Amino acid sequence: TQTYQITLLPGDGIGPEIIGVTVKVLKAVGQQCDLEFKFTEGLIGGVAIDQTGNPLPQETLDICRESDAVLLAAIGGYKWDNLPRHQRPETGLLGLRAGLELFANLRPAKILPQLVDASSLKRNIVEGVDIMVVRELTGGVYFGEPKGVFSTENGQQRGVNTMAYTDAEIDRIGKVAFETAQKRNKKLCSVDKANVLEVSQLWRDRVTALSSSYPDIELSHLYVDNAAMQLVRDPKQFDIIVTGNLFGDILSDAAAMLTGSIGMLPSASMGEGKPGVFEPVHGSAPDIAGENKANPLAQVLSAAMMLRYGLDQPIAADKIEQAVFNVLDQGYRTGDIMSEGMTLLGCQEMGEVLLKSI
Ligand code: NAD
Ligand code: IPM
Ligand code: MN
Hints:
alpha/beta, Isopropylmalate Dehydrogenase, 2 domains, 10-stranded mixed sheet, 14 strands, about 40% helix, oxidoreductase
């Protein structure tokens, strides 16, 4: 039996509900694949603020560093929205990503055939969509200095953030993107705003320079405004998209709707070593928290990414993805992906049918 130390970070809102379902699924798959998971829970986000005053307690970072992988749900909520920035839940999440040096965030947006009609776009546009967004996660405008709200000489307030990338930061995310492209359809689109931003010009130059080491990959470039438009006009033109932190955040939410719901989209946040953090693309959904309405599948699929990319257990990962496929085939839906003739389930009940299917 292979044993893994997994840190669970349920966080806020729907987090505990979707993590609960996912732990059961992992245990069931573990039994079949002879894997044992040792789970330790940590505090992050709003719950961590309430219990310790800090959205990312040192203890949480320590247990994450000692584990083989981290399964994170989501953080944030109305209650903590007016705290000073360093005490916000989001700051805890950013601190975790920075603390573990998780510079590469893989966000696959693949439509499952059963959900074609749950997308807000037409069937012929979304059928067959299979995109991987490679989002830079520890740089760009999220982390650049200077940042803050400063007073100007004439008594104004001035809010400042800085979008910055070094060549080394661009090269390392670029490499991840080219290598990911080699395992897929060998088409990479780099998204930037090089017509306006210096930082994007450097981004484009470095990605272009890198491409000479990957002659098998067809590289293209798009400005981010056009990329947003193309994603909804003709998403099937994309295979891999590589982009900076902010553009990746925005484009991956847009890509989510191609697949029917943001409640379906998993992600993997990885650095050079272990451990990675595996987290859905969506947030804590405070509007439906505690109502047993959340779609747990993005979290469950994030656990599959954990098995595939973090723990190198592709067979167990396949089993989870197959179980998701099966329950959708059987017509089970949560509210966000509901369509006519299907069976509406709550979060818990979706967990139960998943277990039956494993
Ligand atoms: P959100 O993703 O939480 O919710 C957007 C909409 O999608 C809501 O209507 C919500 O009900 C719905 N939704 C999201 N996930 C769902 C699921 N699994 N099943 C069904 N419906 C789902 O984004 P938001 O409302 O902009 O942000 C809410 C809070 O979450 C904020 O505090 C924000 O900072 C935080 N947030 C956290 C993360 C994260 O932890 N990675 C990501 C995004 C937002
Ligand atoms: C995400 C979220 C986070 C981000 C927030 C909550 C800090 O939107 O994971 O996509 O912007 O990266
Ligand atoms: Mn986001």
